[in-house]
Design a protein that fits this description.
single chain, 170 residues, alpha+beta, four-stranded antiparallel β-sheet, 5 helices, 4 strands, 10% strand, globular
Amino acid sequence: LRIKGEKTVECDYSSLVARLAYAYVGDRSDAVQPPKGDLYTIPGLSPESRDGVKRLVSTLLFDQRKNRDRFPKGVAELFKLDDQRKGFKQVLELINAHHAAIAPLFGTGIGHYLQFLESQLLVNVLLRLAQRKIVALPLHDCVVVQERKAERVASIMEGTALGLIGTKIP
């Protein structure tokens, strides 16, 4: 894919849904900082299980029930075999321990609101880029832009998150 004949890159927010959950909790209490690094890499689970963790955290935020007792359909297969063998309960315990600040949101259905925030954030990013005459193609929580403009776009994205959400989202 090229824009105006130039190579493109994806500029995306890091662990956006989980970071929005932290921002939501932080609005309702003292400042709550997410753990450092990739929020979908959980101590005690293989980094290769990241896709499974990401899908499970998303499911837990969208769930409207607190008593989930098994992996959602198709999610267990996203975990490395050693992590699958730990079983849902132990995987959930590890996620809850690593994300204790947002664990109370699991099973509340807050995911829909967080998804709305994500859409508002991306719309604002697109508007700011358009004002600066930067062509950007949206894709979930990222924008595809000319490679030479990536640093500027990343700065605009971080500034937009800070202004709209009230927290830095890398």
